[in-house]
Amino acid sequence: MNPYREQEIVEILNSNEPEILNSLLQAAHNTRIKQLGKEVYLRGLIEFSNYCPRNCLYCGLRKSNEKIHRYRLDEEIIIELAMMAYNMGFQSIALQSGEIDSQEQVDFLAAIVEKIILSSKQRSHQSLGVTLSVGELSYQQYLQLWQAGAHRYLLRIETSDPVLFKKIHPPSQLYDRRLECLDALKDIGYQVGTGIMVGLPGQSNEQLAQDLTFFQKRDIDMLGLGPYIPHSDTPLARVPDRHERDVFTLTLKMLALARLAMPDINMVASTALQSINPLGLRWGLMAGANIIMPVLTPEEKRSDYSLYDNKEQKSMEEITAEVEAGGFKLGYWKWGDSPHYFQRREELKQG
Ligand code: SAH
Ligand code: SF4
């Protein structure tokens, strides 16, 4: 239940009053502690390829960006990284890449997911949890990856406004297609995550308020919401934003409002949030986020996975210090699934 109506949300987003921000963050924090406790769950992020056939106007991995060096990690390396995460006490990994555009690549990924789950099961009764974020696929392909053992999927809507969506994507990339994908993922049984970028050129606070309504209507299990950060080799970086705004604070407000509206979902303190403010991780958690995704991609490939400029990469020591400084606790050896998912599935069973 959303405690605020859309108009009240717009007023909160418009406000520059420190008291409004502070009481919003405090309320979100209280809700989070009550619903989910102090634990912060880890998803080891493996960015296994930066090839992408898409041309999203905001993203450095877009096909037309010829300046980046493209890479694809080998199967053995991906499995090695996953097992490294497992040995570090991470119970989950997230495999992310540019969009996968061939059946061959889906087969490759499905085989890797199977092997990771098998290897981790040999060591303990609970295997590694696998989250995927590889773009728009067919129903059959999502099903194949689910049957291979993946159980969470992240596909951001980027903005719930179809008009703004059209402005930040080429004509071949359709809003409705993305909705179909989100439907397919839910139908198959995945824990479904979506999200948006905050501070896109031309994005209004009314649109952001509608994004929150969109998440609720879609009954999502996980939220990935972060600031938009221009990438200098993309068309959107050349589009001026007429709104003068503090995107960091705006993102914190959106996280806090999302936590209040959806108390039991999993919410990520995104790398993008950490990239625009040195205290982004701590503040993200204080605004209600309960998931972090430490980057495990090999050091020498990280700069090639450049979704946006100046991506921040924190070490595990820095992450631990930030989490503890905020009064939170890292949830090692636990899957940390979205409680909302189980409640939703239970309701589905009861009809
Ligand atoms: N190709 C997959 C996964 C990789 S992109 C996909 O598109 O779903 C993952 C996310 O990075 C995107 O959903 C987008 O929200 C985010 N992203 C891309 N470019 C960005 C930018 N310039 N600033 C902030 N986030 C960005
Ligand atoms: Fe490709 Fe994803 Fe970037 Fe779009 S956002 S260009 S699909 S990597």
Give a quick set of tags describing it.
single chain, 351 residues, three-stranded parallel beta sheet, globular, binds S-adenosyl-L-homocysteine, binds iron/sulfur cluster
Kindly describe this structure.
The protein is an alpha/beta fold and 351 residues long. 46% of the residues lie in helices and 11% in strands. It has 14 helices and twelve strands. It has helices at residues 6-14, 18-36, 75-87, 103-123, 139-148, 162-167, 175-188, 205-218, 247-261, 271-276, 280-286, 299-302, 316-325, 339-350, and strands at 39-42, 44-49, 92-97, 129-133, 152-154, 191-194, 197-198, 222-223, 226-227, 266-267, 291-292, 329-330. Helix 2 crosses helix 9 (247-261), helix 5 (139-148) packs parallel to helix 7 (175-188) and helix 8 (205-218) packs parallel to helix 9. The model has no long low-confidence stretch (mean pLDDT 94). S-adenosyl-L-homocysteine (SAH) is lined by residues 58-59, 96, 98-99, 133, 135, 155-156, 158, 197, 226, 228-229, 231, 272, 307-308. S-adenosyl-L-homocysteine (SAH) binds at residues 58-59, 96, 98-99, 133, 135, 155-156, 158, 197, 226, 228-229, 231, 272, 307-308.
